[in-house]
Amino acid sequence: MIRAGVGGWTFEPWRDNFYPAGLPHARELAFASAKLSAIEINGTYYGTQKPASFAKWHAETPDDFMFAVKASRFCTNRKILAEGGESVQRFINSGIAELRGKLGPINWQFLPTKKFDPEDFDAFLSLLPKEVAGLPLRHVVEVRHASFAVPQFIDTLRRHGVAAVLTDNPGFPRLHDMTADFVYARLQLCREEEPAGYPPDVLDEWGRTARIWAEGGAPATLPLLAPAGAKQARDVFVFFIAGFKPRAPAAAMALLQRL
Q1: Residue 96's domain spans which residues?
Q2: Measured between alpha carbons, how far is 136 from 130 in angstroms, rounded to an integer?
């Protein structure tokens, strides 16, 4: 399955170009989830959400919809990651299981200043549980320091079955290696002058790339840090989350049309 969406659904500028005029704010998630196939929940990064909120979001979205969830910053914004076990468990047990079958990957985002410490990062990945309340969990890490762009990091991710966020942001490391049974891209270069956020040929290329990933391949246009692993079909998640953000829904819908 290839899914495309945005980060969050409450964003004032979307109320004059994506959401219909006069749409009640309480109906925005229902509207967005009918146009997109996935949304990354960002509020969970900043504060704990109630189980009832996750249950409500599950009820408001289509059966085939999926949420990615950004993990709490209290798990990742720390000097020694291996000491974050209590915070990790607190987040995992905060109610995300209420999303049930709509629970997608969990994104563990790190500060741009966080450097790769092989031993500590390996210990952190060991803290990430494989399931909650009988639901299998998939994990992806968003690292933004250049020290992570090494083969050892790729090998570490593969041992744990964890993915790395792929981005087109030139300021972040370009990690294109497949290390899990899914691919997670966060695209950050939406442009105001482009009606669909990206030029048509760029969206065409992302569409071709997503198909290659889904079929288990590695696009020749994206250089790898380590030898390619075994070929296997993968789920693909593509989120448009930054740049000129008002164009993000249009970019996601344009990609879905191509798919």
Answers
A1: 2-258
A2: 6
Distance between CA atoms of residues 96 and 99, nearest Å: 6
CA–CA separation, 206 and 37 (whole Å): 16
Residue 102: CATH number of its domain: 3.20.20.410
Cβ burial of 170 (10 Å; 0-12, 13-18, 19+) is: exposed
Chain segment 171-215, per-residue pLDDT in tens:
999 999 999 999 999 999 999 999 999 999 999 999 999 999 999
Q: How many residues does the structure list for the chain?
A: 259
Q: Which of 18, 54, 81 is nearest to 245 (CA)?
A: 18
Span 132-166, pLDDT tens digits? 999 999 999 999 999 999 999 999 999 999 999 99
The pLDDT tens digits of the residues spanning 82-115 come to: 999 999 999 999 999 999 999 999 999 999 999 9
CB atoms inside a 10 Å sphere around CB 231: 11
What's the total number of domains in the chain?
A: 1
Q: Can you tell me the distance from the alpha carbon of 208 to that of 202, in angstroms, rounded to the nearest whole number?
A: 10
**Percentage of residues of the chain with pLDDT beyond 70:** 100
Which residues on neighbouring strands pair with residue 7, listed in sequence order? 40
Dist CA 79 CA 15 (whole Å): 39
Q: What single-letter DSSP state applies at residue 107?
A: E
The reported pTM is: 0.96
